[in-house]
Amino acid sequence: MLDARVSPALVLGIESSCDETGVALVQSTPGQAVPQLLAHALFSQIEMHQAYGGVVPELASRDHIRRVLPLTREVLQQAGKALSEVDVVAFTRGPGLAGALLVGSGVACALGAALGKPVLGVHHLEGHLLSPFLSADPPQFPFVALLVSGGHTQLMQVDGVGRYTLLGETIDDAAGEAFDKSAKLLGLPYPGGPGLSKLATQGDAQAFKLPRPLLHSGNLDFSFAGLKTAVLTQSQKLGADLQARKADLAASTQAAIVEVLVKKSMLALTQTGAKRLVVAGGVGANRELRAQLDAQCAKLGVRVHYPEMHLCTDNGAMIALAAAMRLQAGVQSASLDYSFEVKPRWPLAQIGV
Ligand code: KG4
Ligand code: ZN
């Protein structure tokens, strides 16, 4: 018997899919709808990768190795728990950088084997998607989810834990990538999203007319690659004036990305008739996006739910939470088979229940 049904459970979650090592402990209790976050700790490698203008996969893997066990000790201490009390060890199985995923998966499975406790591999995007359940105002199923991270831009119909239907997605760059690549063209450090949105607050969003790709396509797909090219062309045209007009170009870029995300989200809501929207992933931290979604959803009578600001970008809490919710909903069992396989490419709609 390799499967283990575990309830109630103290779940240790390890996230290592990209450039953040995150570890967290959540406790799920029967009768309680949402598992409780006991502790979480994070180490961001951003500073290390900034020198290269983007994530260097080999450096990321090596740094995950250095951070994961100290962070694990830290969360156990914060929560006042012993390692032996952990019931399940969860980890990000994919999608992400293969080497980085191997570190978290390897450590999680080694810990599970050493403790004789079951392990459970989680989809990174499911972690993002469920992360608003840790907020003070958790959503209820069903809802439409706008998943906007550095690598993904998707609209999903979510009917329950593990019940995800893809409504539309980007056909090229992700929204986070559009922020990051445009920011790079403006000379801002990696990752560019936070810096570009900060600069945008000092600029005029109407200053430059930038494309809104697929805005009127009638479907729920996105395309952001052309926007980056338009920002490049505009910055070349500005030449020596770029420095003085940087804030205007940042504001115009953000306005283009946000308008497409908001309009497509509204279309998804009217098409599905959903009364709730959940926004998740790093770009979900963008204040302009939040303000416009709030305003438009209020008009439609739709409630919007976001993760806490500090849980928008990658973290271990969302991985421990997703594992605990999958166990609680009975859609997945933890496993006593410690062999593992990472999935660098893994469509969320294919994880099933
Ligand atoms: O979800 P996440 O941490 O990592 C992935 O799973 O990809 O998302 C990272 C992305 C980066 O592209 C980053 O620039 C973007 O989220 N981001 C933002 C903001 N904060 C993070 N983009 C726009 N505005 C922000 N405030
Ligand atoms: Zn992520």
Strand order of the largest sheet: 4-3-2-5-6
Low-confidence stretches: none
Helical percentage: 40-55%
Can you list the ligands bound to this structure? Answer: 5'-O-[(R)-(carboxyoxy)(hydroxy)phosphoryl]adenosine, zinc ion
Roughly how many Å is the radius of gyration? 20 Å
> What is the global morphology?
globular
The fourth-level CATH homologous superfamily of the largest domain is ATPase, nucleotide binding domain
Terminal Cα separation, in Å? 20 Å
**What proportion of the residues form beta strands (DSSP E)?**
15-25%
Count of beta strands: 12
Counted by DSSP, the helix tally is 10
Top-tier CATH class of the largest domain = Alpha Beta
CATH architecture of the largest domain: 2-Layer Sandwich
What is the domain tally? 2
